[in-house]
Amino acid sequence: MIEGRPSHTALRVATHRAAHQLLDTPVVFHDPLALAILGPEAAAGVRANPGGSERSIVGPYLRAFLAARSRVAEDTLQALHGARVTQYVVLGAGLDTFAYRNPYMPSSLRIFEVDHPSTQEWKRNQLAAAGIPLPPNLTFVSVDFERQSLRAQLEYGGLRADEGTCFAWLGVTPYLTRDAIDETLAIIADFCRLGGGVVFDYAVPPETLGIAGRAVVTAMATRVKRIGEEWKSWIVPEQIVRQMRDLGFNDVVDLDGVALNARYFAGRSDGLRVGDAAHVLRAVRR
Fold it and tell me: Model confidence at 1, in pLDDT bands (50, 70, 90)?
């Protein structure tokens, strides 16, 4: 991490999210703040060249996947919000904008953004520069994972175990060791014991994919490794579904590429869809 700056990956994801608003009709994931939070210079660059450097065949698949996983997370929150689920935690928030376009009454949902202190500093500067106000129901939870406990920081930030909680954990698991993933999932399960759920995406072992999918995943892993953000974990779908059930989640759905395309991309005239490697897991405890 560089002081006051986000990770390369966080910025790249935000840029793709903004490009989705311009390139794809209809949008799968509507985010009216996606361009504004980038800042004037970066936003102008996206408007001028929304495809960016992703003009290969991989670009649309990646853009579709980033939109789909955010849609799954916010659809899950919508389904759970109400009597029991009154807290929403965005782990590895990056430049996520949900808190600033929250459609629910502030009194009915407390939002916690969890991220590295440097990324949060950069984001808060971006929000201030764009004139995007901080809502009263938002809490920033800074966690330096090399020095601090996620559980302790969540509790210090005010997250309550006696209220239902929905977690969004997007674009993070490939960069963690399996031990770190398991520890985080156990913490999430503890906070969901009275109801709630989690949505997260993950990378499947390349050898389980077809030739095209394996080539795409390997290329992406190689790219992020070059910028110092190496993928460390690969997850087998059947194993993670079983693990989530063992943690107490009684409604576990692994959305693969076929399921995501059927749910969000059916009938499109532009052919936008996710690839074979896509996996987003939704686990709910009722």
Answer: very low
CA distance 83 to 164: 8
Query: Are the CB atoms for 16 and 45 separated by under 8 Å?
Result: no
Task: State the pLDDT at residue 128.
Answer: 96
E strand segments, the chain: 85-91, 110-115, 138-142, 164-169, 196-201, 251-256, 279-285
pTM for the model stands at: 0.94
- Residue 147 CB burial class (10 angstroms; 0-12, 13-18, ≥19): exposed
Question: Which pLDDT score is estimated for 211?
Answer: 86
Q: CA-CA distance, 77 to 81, in Å (whole number)?
A: 6
Please give the Cα distance from 2 to 5 (Å, whole number). Answer: 5
Q: Which of 25-39, 40-54, 91-105 has the lowest mean pLDDT?
A: 40-54
